[in-house]
């Protein structure tokens, strides 16, 4: 499922216009992204949680030249499925 399919499903289930459904989905995604950008966790009980992991600086290698390079510290978002979702997928 992609974003357009999600909008279409919301439109059909909630009996709202496509533009209203698109706005709801966009607000939801924007709020989740803003929350993660602030370093906070997003949890949807039974479905999943999103959180940000901090990585320290480390020395890596350029695969083409083999030259050592310093990788700057970074933050990356992660997804963890909830118990109910795991059970539903593994039925």
Tally the beta strands: 5
| Total discrete domains | 2
Main sheet attributes: strand count, strand direction, barrel closure? 3 strands, antiparallel
Secondary-structure class: alpha+beta
Order of helices and strands: HHEEEEEH
* Helix percentage range: 40-55%
User: How confident overall, as mean pLDDT?
Assistant: 95
In what order do the strands lie side by side in the largest sheet? 1-2-5
Oligomer: single chain
Count up the helices: 3
Strand content: 25-35%
- Unreliable stretches (pLDDT < 50, length at least 5) are none
Radius of gyration in whole Å, from Cα?
19 Å
Shape, principal axes of CA atoms: elongated
Entry summary:
By secondary structure, the chain is an alpha+beta fold. It is 43% helix and 30% strand.
Structure description:
The strands form two sheets. The chain has a three-stranded antiparallel sheet. The mean pLDDT is 95. The longest helix has 20 residues, at 18-37. α1 (3-14) crosses α2. It has 91 residues and is α+β, with helices and mostly antiparallel strands. It contains three helices and five strands, in the order ααβββββα. It has two domains: 1-38; 48-81, no CATH class.
């Amino acid at each position: 499922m992609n974003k357009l399919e999600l909008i279409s499903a919301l439109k059909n289930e909630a009996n709202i216009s496509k533009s209203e459904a698109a706005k709801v989905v966009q607000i939801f995604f924007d709020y989740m992204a803003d929350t993660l950008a602030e370093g906070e966790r997003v949890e949807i009980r039974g479905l999943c949680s999103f959180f940000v992991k901090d990585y320290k600086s480390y020395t890596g290698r350029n695969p083409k030249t083999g030259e050592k390079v310093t990788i700057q510290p970074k933050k990356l978002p992660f997804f963890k499925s909830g118990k109910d979702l795991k059970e539903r997928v593994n039925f």
